Amino acid sequence: MVARHDQTTDPVLLDGLLQARRGTAFFARKLNELTDAELDGDSLLPGWTRRHVVAHVGYNARAVSRLVEWAATGVETPMYPSVEVRNYEIDFGATLSPIALRNLFDHSAVHLNVEWRDLPADSWHHKVKTVQGRTVPAEETVWMRTREVWVHAVDLDNGATFKDIPAPVLERLLKDITDAWHARGTDKDLVVQVDGTALSFGDTTAASPTIVSGPLAAIAQWATGRGTDGTRAQHDGGSVTPVPAAPAWI
């Protein structure tokens, strides 16, 4: 039997698919290291157990698959009927037996991968709509999923850190977050700088900004609201203690 491959030949898209698949494998590894009993433990997300994180990532794959199907068929298939349905789905998934919860993640990830693999090259540009109401090309689904699997692998609180996430993923994540701040006007007088690079985000035209800096992984962790370890802040040349909380991202 001849092996089936991605129909797209776009090198940028293929690289994105590789990062998404590596993130999925990384999440799977951190999940499989947990015993069934440990699934009941707290995640790094307030109010969510590890079960909630796994359920969310599993159902997210199904939701993203619906967008890929929309791009392939032209038949509108939203990610979720509503935000309320999405939240109910996660809460329900968290009550599944350990084997069912693990199967949810495994099967949904395989399904999404097949949908991506079989999407015709010209269909990647077809427009779909995210749960937030943004109209985007289907190729955006790859980044949507990449972000989910890498960040939530850390949220399982099983030894993964932002240092495990590839630098290109962290850089794009930072751009996403700071763009969201800018769109809401919540980055006023705030500049984010990554040590050892020219990367600078936020209100870079501010006359007297608060500058939050640190290594790339630490800055990404801070920007996602997951702690200030490894970061530092300055205002008018003096240190700021403690480092201010990042504006809300989502």
TrEMBL record:
Residues 21-156 form the Mycothiol-dependent maleylpyruvate isomerase metal-binding domain. It holds the Pfam family MDMPI_N. One of its GO terms (molecular function) is isomerase activity. Residues 227-250 are annotated as: Disordered. The keyword Isomerase applies. The keyword Isomerase applies. SUPFAM superfamilies: DinB/YfiT-like putative metalloenzymes (SSF109854), SCP-like (SSF55718). InterPro entries: DinB/YfiT-like, Maleyloyr_isom, MDMPI_metal-binding, SCP2_sterol-bd_dom_sf. Keywords: Isomerase, Pyruvate. This is Maleylpyruvate isomerase. It comes from Pseudarthrobacter phenanthrenivorans (Arthrobacter phenanthrenivorans).
